[in-house]
Amino acid sequence: MRSTWCTDPYFCGAFSYMGISSTVGHQCDLGAPIPGECGDVPPILLFAGEATCPGYHSTTHGALISGVREANRVIELTKKYQGPPNSKNMEAN
């Protein structure tokens, strides 16, 4: 896929930044799976992106680190549920 963002008049770019009242906890909250990791319900929505990586917001490093973090989470969930989570293997765990 080829992009022409540099000539697209409607693309203005974007980046994340820490607001004055922002904390590292807010970044951790952004990266928390939904539903959370409490209880027996596996997460169905995972978040990655540099804004979810404390210490690396607005960087390519943060994007990579968060992607690896969530890939590892998917691997661990797949191992735990012996495949994609479903009602059969959720009852076994």
If you average the pLDDT, what whole number results? 85
Radius of gyration: 17 Å
Percentage beta strand: under 5%
Which range best describes the helical content: under 10%, 10-25%, 25-40%, 40-55%, 55-70% or over 70%? 25-40%
Report the sheet with the most strands, covering strand number, pairing sense and barrel closure.
none
* Low-pLDDT residue intervals, each spanning 5 or more residues: none
Given the helix and strand composition, which structural class is it?
mainly alpha
What's the SSE pattern?
HHH
Can you tell me the overall shape? extended
Oligomer: single chain
N-to-C span:
41 Å
Number of domains: 1
Number of strands: 0
Total helical segments: 3
GO molecular function: polyamine oxidase activity
Domain Amine oxidase: 2-75
Protein name: Amine oxidase domain-containing protein
InterPro entries: Amino_oxidase, FAD/NAD-bd_sf, Flavin_monoamine_oxidase
Describe the model.
By secondary structure, the chain is mainly α. The protein has one domain (22-92). Helix content is 37%, strand content 0%. The chain contains 3 helices and no strands. The protein is extended. The protein starts with 23 loop residues before the first helix and ends with a helix.
